[in-house]
């Protein structure tokens, strides 16, 4: 199997449109992690992503009759741009079906390259279904984003370049995983020529379809897929990529949103490139691997797989980057309700910078504050908490509390004793014009809303925190109703951040 794929990779037609991208040394990060870290700069392709390689190579294998009929694909953006550019180069009509959640920058880029764009559905699966419908109705040839040997071979040319650019020892190559085409191509080439090099997949923890498949020993469909890193938001690993990955991938690392945001910042600091979340995914995994495995003085390579992100999303990324790097602690601290207590608290914090301070009067004896504190490193958080506890301040660490970071830090309303039977729910829904109104219409008017917080984060999905007054006899009805309307949600009624600041 490997030999067949290596031949395909060596014969792949990608350089009519793609270019060999540099392998950039990440000097700052290398020093910080005490390893030799390199970033493969696929963000420098003409479409700002590696997807151009696979799309063009697959189209290059089509017959003239297939080209005359036209091509179609379903894509969240990067494959779409690659196919659009490939089709324009070859003079082929291309139709791209994209989910409605696709960032505007990707939609505009596809249109600018002459392809017809159809926005369909809130997720990739709905777009895919419609693309197949067009194949039946129009006779188009479907060019898949990852589950095709020629697409895999096109992506595998990245490995060919990396091994040529760095002929010395390499401990591991970290590869972002969505549908699996990229890691299948890289693993095929690397394991045939250099089986000593580890090939490690990196997935967003809320869309880890390869890890789920490897754990189960077969391809599975995830019940839900997070879409912050929309370039890898795939519910099921591709059939052909999984056939390769289960034999030749050495492991899979999952990372959370904060770790991805921190990696976006790291990419920028070392290369001045602004990667999209999925573009920084493999670096987030590399960092986690180096820190958890205690690897030092080794050569580690990751791939900046793309730089197609909306500018307004950078606000959310910047907000979460410090938490992902463990350079900020978010704490709930109880201090005495008396003059001078905040000054005394700051003395206990010491020379650490207070980044955020939220407070509202509660009672005559105690004040609960929501505070952000800048840290020197990951160990500094435990030292800070210990020093506060030794000074008799009750402390609740909220640094890993998603509701606290998304909502509580922006709410200053305080508790309301007049509100009874309150349940708190956190929702996510696909973000697009009119999405909030549609969410509210679906939510209905069965129970009184006692709290509401929504903030547009410039991300691909909206996040709402809602308090509803629900009598004990209606609690099961609420759960059934929320399950039926289909939005992803969490019951946060027992969340300590809610109990401390809003209850």
UniProtKB/TrEMBL annotation:
UniProt keyword list: Amino-acid biosynthesis, Branched-chain amino acid biosynthesis, Isoleucine biosynthesis, Lyase, Pyridoxal phosphate, Repeat
Stretches assigned to the ACT-like domain: 329-400, 423-494
InterPro entries: ACT-like_dom_sf, Ser/Thr_Dehydratase, Ser/Thr_deHydtase_PyrdxlP-BS, TD_ACT-like, TD_ACT-like_sf, Thr_deHydtase_biosynth, TrpB-like_PALP, TrpB-like_PALP_sf
CDD domains documented for this protein: ACT_ThrD-I_1, ACT_ThrD-I_2, Thr-dehyd
Reported cofactor(s): pyridoxal 5'-phosphate
GO MF entry, a single one: pyridoxal phosphate binding
GO terms of biological process kind: isoleucine biosynthetic process; L-serine catabolic process; L-threonine catabolic process
Biological pathway: Amino-acid biosynthesis; L-isoleucine biosynthesis; 2-oxobutanoate from L-threonine: step 1/1
Chemical reaction(s) catalysed: L-threonine = 2-oxobutanoate + NH4(+)
Keyword hit for Lyase: yes
Keyword Amino-acid biosynthesis: yes
EC number: 4.3.1.19
Pfam family, one: PALP
Self-association state and partner proteins as the record states: Homotetramer.
Protein's job: Catalyzes the anaerobic formation of alpha-ketobutyrate and ammonia from threonine in a two-step reaction. The first step involved a dehydration of threonine and a production of enamine intermediates (aminocrotonate), which tautomerizes to its imine form (iminobutyrate). Both intermediates are unstable and short-lived. The second step is the nonenzymatic hydrolysis of the enamine/imine intermediates to form 2-ketobutyrate and free ammonia. In the low water environment of the cell, the second step is accelerated by RidA.
Entry similarity comment: Belongs to the serine/threonine dehydratase family.
Stated name of the protein: L-threonine dehydratase
Organism of provenance: Oceanospirillum sediminis
Gene transcribed to yield this protein: ilvA
């Amino acid at each position: 199997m490997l030999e067949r794929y290596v031949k395909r990779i060596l014969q792949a037609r990608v350089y009519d449109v793609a270019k060999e991208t540099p392998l950039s040394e990440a000097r700052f990060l290398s020093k910080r992690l005490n390893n030799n870290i390199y970033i493969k700069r696929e963000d420098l392709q003409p479409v700002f992503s590696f997807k151009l390689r696979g799309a063009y190579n697959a189209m290059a294998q089509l017959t003239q009759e297939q080209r005359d009929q036209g091509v179609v694909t379903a894509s969240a953006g990067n494959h779409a741009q690659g196919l659009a550019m490939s089709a324009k180069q070859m003079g082929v009509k291309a139709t791209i079906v994209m989910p409605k959640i696709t960032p505007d920058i990707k939609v505009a880029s596809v249109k600018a390259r002459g392809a017809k764009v159809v926005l369909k559905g809130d997720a990739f699966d709905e777009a895919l279904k419609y693309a197949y419908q067009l194949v039946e109705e129009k006779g188009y040839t479907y060019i898949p984003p990852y589950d095709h040997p020629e697409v895999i071979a096109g992506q595998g040319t990245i490995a060919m370049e990396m091994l040529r650019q760095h002929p010395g020892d390499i401990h591991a190559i970290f590869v972002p995983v969505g549908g699996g085409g990229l890691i299948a191509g890289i693993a095929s080439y690397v394991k045939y020529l250099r089986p000593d090099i580890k090939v490690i997949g990196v997935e967003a923890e809320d869309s880890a379809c390869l890890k789920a498949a490897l754990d189960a020993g077969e391809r599975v469909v995830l019940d839900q897929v997070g879409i912050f890193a929309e370039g890898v938001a795939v519910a099921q690993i591709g059939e052909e990529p999984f056939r390769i990955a289960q034999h030749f991938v050495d492991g899979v690392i999952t990372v959370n949103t904060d770790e991805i945001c921190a990696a976006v910042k790291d990419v920028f600091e070392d290369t001045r490139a602004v990667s999209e979340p999925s573009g920084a995914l493999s670096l987030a995994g590399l960092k986690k691997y180096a820190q958890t495995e205690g690897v030092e003085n080794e050569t580690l390579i990751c791939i900046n797989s793309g730089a197609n992100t909306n500018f307004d999303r950078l606000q959310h990324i910047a907000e979460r980057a410090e938490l992902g790097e463990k350079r900020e602690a978010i704490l709930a601290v109880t201090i005495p309700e008396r003059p001078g207590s905040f000054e005394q608290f700051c003395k206990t914090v010491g020379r650490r910078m207070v980044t955020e301070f939220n407070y509202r009067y509660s009672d005559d004896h105690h004040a609960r504050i929501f505070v952000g504190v800048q840290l020197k490193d990951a160990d500094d958080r435990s030292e800070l908490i210990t020093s506060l506890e030794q000074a008799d301040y009750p402390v609740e660490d909220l640094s890993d509390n998603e509701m606290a970071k998304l909502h509580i830090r922006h709410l200053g309303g305080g508790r309301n004793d007049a509100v009874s039977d309150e349940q708190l729910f956190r929702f996510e829904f696909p973000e697009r014009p009119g999405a909030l109104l549609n969410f509210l219409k679906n939510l209905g008017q069965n129970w009184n809303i006692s709290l509401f917080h929504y903030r547009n984060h410039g991300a691909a999905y909206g996040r709402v925190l809602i308090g509803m007054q629900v009598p004990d006899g209606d609690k099961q009805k609420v759960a059934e109703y929320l399950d039926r309307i289909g939005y992803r949600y969490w019951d946060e009624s027992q969340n300590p951040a809610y109990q401390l600041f809003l209850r």
